[in-house]
Design brief:
By secondary structure, the protein is mostly helical. Helices cover about 25% and strands about 0% of the residues. The chain has three helices and no strands. The two termini are about 20 Å apart.
Length: about 100
C-alpha cells in the first residue's frame, strides 16, 4: 500500500498469485497504482455480493466438490508439498 500512495517509493517487488480468468481493466492514468491510491485514500472498500466471493480454500484436489481460489493442479501440488512442511504454519482454510 505504501507504494500506491507514497511517491518516494521507486520500485515494488512482489510475487502475487493471479486469481481469475481475465485481466483487470487498465487504470485511468496508465499508472498501475492509480486505482489502488484512489481506493485507499477515499474509496469504499466494503464488499458487496456482486464483487465478493468466498470464503474458499486456497487449493483443492476436487474442484467440483470443493472449489478453491487457485484452480491449477500445479498450484495444489506446490502448496501441498511446500506449504504443508513442518513449521510452515500455512493453512489451506479461509479465515
Amino acid at each position: 500500500m505504501v507504494g500506491a500512495i507514497d511517491t518516494r517509493v521507486k520500485a515494488i517487488v512482489a510475487q502475487v498469485p493471479a486469481c481469475g480468468d481475465s485481466l483487470p481493466p487498465p487504470d485511468r492514468d496508465g499508472s498501475c497504482f492509480a486505482s489502488i491510491r484512489d481506493r485507499f485514500l477515499g474509496g469504499d472498500v466494503s464488499g458487496t455480493p456482486e464483487n465478493t466471493f468466498g470464503p474458499l480454500p486456497v487449493v483443492s484436489c476436487d474442484q467440483k466438490g470443493t472449489p478453491s481460489l487457485l484452480k491449477a493442479l500445479t498450484a495444489y501440488r506446490w502448496f501441498i508439498e511446500h506449504g504443508c512442511r513442518f513449521g510452515s504454519k500455512w493453512e489451506n482454510s479461509p479465515r
